[in-house]
Amino acid sequence: MPIYEYRCDACSAVFEELTLSAAERPAVRCHACESRRVTRLLSAFAVQSAASDSRPVEPGGCGACGAPRRGMCGE
Length: 75
What we know:
3-stranded antiparallel sheet; single chain
């Protein structure tokens, strides 16, 4: 069961809703004002950084972001 993030078009509140399918969207209501005028938002994905990765960093690579060369990420 996916958790979707929504923004209320009436009061701008942002909230999450656990839904069984996309067909349930009309039943979603704002948690703050009960409006059904909501927009589903795109959620960010979790990304594992090179700093927390257990693989060794290539010699000469950036230790902060894992870029092939130092300076590519601004570090």
